[in-house]
C-alpha cells in the first residue's frame, strides 16, 4: 500500500497506457469482426473456414506474435503499434465467432417480418439483426475485453509500458508490493471496463429489462 | 385489386409444384380467404403478392400492374402484412413497431408517431400500452399491434397470414370481430389465409378452398360453399355432414326454435331483419 501511495503518478500513467492498449484493439477488432461475422453468418460454406482460421489465430502464443509481427510489418519492437496489432488479432479471433453466433441467435421471425414490411438488406442488418444480436454480442465483447486487458501485460516483456511493467520491474528489483499493485490494478481495470460495458448494454438495450421482468413475473 | 394469373411455384426442379396453375381475383375493398390444411400452398400464394416469393410461372397483378416489375422493397412498404405470432420487432415498443412503416415510407418521426397512435386506437389497444415492449403485452394485444402495423401501409392491400392462429379461442373471436368492424370502416382489399373453416366463413366474402399444390377445390361465398359443396373433399373439409351444421326448426308453443343435429337448441327463428 505504501509503495503504491509513493508512486501514484507512475501508476496513473501506466493505468492510462494500459487502458489504451486494451480498448483500441477491442474496438478495432469489433469493427473488423462485424463484417466478417456477418459474412460467416450469411454464407454458410464460409462459416467453418472463417471460424476455423479465427480459432487457429488464437492458438499462436502472444509472446511469439509480439516478436514475429515487427519484422513482418516493418514496425519497431518497442512500439505500441506492435502490441495493438497483436492484441487486435486475438480479440478478432474471439469476436468473429461471437458476431457469427450473435447473429445466429436472432429470432428468424423478427428478420422475416422486417423483410415483409419493407426493410432492405442493410437496414435489416443495422436496425434489426444487430440490436437483437446485442445480448450475445455483449457477452462476447466482455470476455474479449477482460482477456485483452490481461494480455496487455505480456507486452511488458518486450518493453511496451503498461501495468505489466510493474510485474517485470517488481520482479527484477524484488519489490513484492509493486508486483501485487500491478495484479490488483490490472484486475480493477478489467472490472471497470466490464462494468462500463454492462452499463452501456443496459442503456442501449432497454427492451431486455422489460423481457426479464416478464420472464420472472 | 389482386389478380393471380396461372401462377405456378416450384421450389426445386425435383419436387412437385407447391402451387400449380392458380388463378384468382380479389376485388378491391373485399376480403377473400384462402383456406386449406398445411402444405396446400396458401402461404406461398400470399407471399407472391409482396414478392417474398416469386412465381416460377404466371403473374401476380396489383391494380393491373405486374408485381414482377416492381422493386420488392418499395412494393413491401406499400402492402400491409400481418403474420402469425404478430411478427413484432421485440426491441421496439408497440408504437414504434407501427411507426416503422410510415418511417420506412419516408415520413418524419412526429408524423409517424401520431399515425401509429391513431392506428393503435383504431385496433382497440389501450393507449397506456403504446410504449410497452411486445414481451410486456398479451398475445391478443400483440396481435392487435400486428394488425395496426399492417394497416399502416399506405397501399390498400392487406395480406394476413393466419394472424389469429396462435391466440386462445376467446381472444381469437374478439380479434375476428374487431377485424370485421375495421374492414367496414376502411374497406381494404384483404387476402387472408387460415386453416380454420369457421374463421374463413366468418371473415371472407369469398372463400377459396385449397387442397395440395394450391389446387382450388371450390370458391364462392360461404353460403354457396355450405349450400352446395363441390365435392366430397369440400364437404368433409367444411364439415357439411357434421351434426352441428345440420340445423332444423322445432316449433314449441308457437316459437320456432333452431336446433342442431343433436337436438341442441341454438336460437330462435324470427322474421325481423338484423
TrEMBL record, chain A:
Could you tell me where this protein is found in the cell? Answer: Cell membrane; Membrane
Presence of keyword Transferase: no
Coiled-coil stretches are none
Q: What biological-process GO terms show up in the record?
A: glycine betaine transport; transmembrane transport
Question: Where, by residue number, does the polypeptide cross the bilayer?
Answer: 20-38, 50-69, 75-96, 117-138, 144-167, 179-200
- Gene Ontology cellular-component annotations: plasma membrane
Name the UniProt record assigns to this protein: ABC transporter permease subunit
Instruction: Check the record and name the Pfam families matching this protein.
Output: BPD_transp_1 (PF00528)
Does the keyword Membrane feature in the UniProt annotation?
A: yes
Membrane topology, from the record? Multi-pass membrane protein
The UniProt entry lists the main location of this chain as membrane
Record's family?
Belongs to the binding-protein-dependent transport system permease family.
| Record's keyword terms, sorted | Membrane, Transmembrane, Transmembrane helix, Transport
- Domain (ABC transmembrane type-1) ranges: 15-197
Highest taxon of the source?
Bacteria
TrEMBL record, chain B:
Its Gene Ontology molecular function terms? ABC-type quaternary ammonium compound transporting activity; ATP binding; ATP hydrolysis activity
> What does the UniProt keyword field contain?
ATP-binding, Nucleotide-binding, Transport
Tell me the ranges covered by the ABC transporter domain, including all copies: 2-238
Alphabetized Pfam families for the sequence: ABC_tran (PF00005)
Could you tell me the superkingdom of the organism this chain comes from?
A: Bacteria
Q: Which residues form a coiled coil?
A: none
Class of this enzyme: translocase
E.C. number, please?
7.6.2.9
- PROSITE patterns xrefs: ABC_TRANSPORTER_1, ABC_TRANSPORTER_2
> Does the keyword field hold Transport?
yes
Keyword match Transport:
yes
Of which family is this protein a member? Answer: Belongs to the ABC transporter superfamily.
Descriptive protein name:
ABC-type quaternary amine transporter
Amino acid at each position: 500500500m505504501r509503495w503504491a501511495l509513493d508512486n501514484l503518478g507512475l501508476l496513473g500513467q501506466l493505468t492510462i497506457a494500459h487502458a489504451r492498449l486494451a480498448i483500441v484493439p477491442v474496438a478495432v477488432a469489433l469493427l473488423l469482426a462485424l463484417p466478417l461475422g456477418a459474412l460467416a453468418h450469411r454464407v454458410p460454406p464460409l462459416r467453418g473456414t472463417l471460424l476455423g482460421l479465427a480459432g487457429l489465430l488464437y492458438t499462436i502464443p502472444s509472446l511469439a506474435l509480439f516478436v514475429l509481427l515487427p519484422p513482418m510489418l516493418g514496425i519497431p519492437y518497442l512500439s505500441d503499434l506492435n502490441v495493438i496489432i497483436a492484441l487486435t488479432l486475438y480479440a478478432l479471433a474471439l469476436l468473429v465467432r461471437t458476431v457469427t453466433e450473435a447473429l445466429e441467435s436472432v429470432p428468424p421471425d423478427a428478420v422475416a417480418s422486417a423483410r415483409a414490411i419493407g426493410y432492405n438488406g442493410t437496414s435489416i442488418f443495422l436496425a434489426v439483426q444487430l440490436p437483437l444480436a446485442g445480448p450475445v454480442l455483449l457477452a462476447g465483447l466482455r470476455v474479449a475485453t477482460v482477456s485483452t486487458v490481461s494480455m496487455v501485460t505480456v507486452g511488458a516483456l518486450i518493453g511496451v509500458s503498461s501495468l505489466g511493467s510493474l510485474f517485470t520491474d517488481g520482479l527484477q528489483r524484488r519489490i513484492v508490493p509493486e508486483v501485487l499493485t500491478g495484479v490488483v490494478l490490472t484486475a480493477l481495470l478489467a472490472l471497470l471496463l466490464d462494468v462500463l460495458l454492462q452499463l452501456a448494454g443496459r442503456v442501449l438495450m432497454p427492451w431486455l429489462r422489460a423481457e426479464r421482468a416478464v420472464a420472472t413475473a | 385489386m389482386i389478380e393471380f394469373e396461372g401462377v405456378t411455384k416450384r421450389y426445386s426442379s425435383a419436387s412437385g409444384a407447391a402451387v400449380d396453375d392458380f388463378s384468382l381475383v380479389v376485388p378491391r375493398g373485399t376480403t377473400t380467404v384462402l383456406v386449406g390444411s398445411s402444405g396446400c400452398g396458401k402461404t406461398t400464394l400470399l407471399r407472391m403478392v409482396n414478392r417474398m416469393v416469386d412465381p416460377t410461372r404466371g403473374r401476380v397483378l396489383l391494380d393491373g400492374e405486374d408485381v414482377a416489375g416492381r422493386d420488392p422493397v418499395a412494393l413491401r412498404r406499400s402492402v400491409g402484412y400481418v403474420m402469425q405470432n404478430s411478427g413484432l420487432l421485440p426491441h421496439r415498443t408497440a408504437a414504434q413497431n407501427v411507426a416503422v412503416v410510415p418511417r420506412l415510407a419516408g415520413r418524419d418521426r412526429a408524423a409517424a408517431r401520431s399515425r401509429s397512435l391513431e392506428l393503435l386506437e383504431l385496433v382497440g389497444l389501450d393507449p397506456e400500452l403504446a410504449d410497452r415492449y411486445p414481451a410486456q403485452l398479451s398475445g391478443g394485444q400483440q396481435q392487435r399491434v400486428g394488425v395496426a402495423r399492417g394497416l399502416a401501409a399506405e397501399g390498400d392491400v392487406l395480406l394476413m397470414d393466419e394472424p389469429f392462429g396462435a391466440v386462445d379461442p376467446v381472444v381469437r373471436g374478439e380479434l375476428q370481430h374487431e377485424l370485421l368492424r375495421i374492414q367496414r370502416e376502411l374497406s381494404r382489399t384483404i387476402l387472408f389465409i387460415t386453416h380454420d373453416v369457421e374463421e374463413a366463413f366468418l371473415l371472407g366474402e369469398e372463400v377459396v378452398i385449397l387442397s395440395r399444390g394450391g389446387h382450388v377445390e371450390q370458391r364462392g361465398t360461404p353460403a354457396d360453399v355450405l349450400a352446395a359443396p363441390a365435392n366430397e373433399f369440400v364437404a368433409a373439409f367444411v364439415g357439411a355432414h357434421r351434426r352441428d351444421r345440420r340445423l332444423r326448426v322445432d316449433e314449441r308453443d308457437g316459437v320456432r326454435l333452431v336446433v342442431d343435429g343433436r337436438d341442441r337448441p341454438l336460437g330462435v327463428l324470427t322474421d325481423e331483419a338484423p
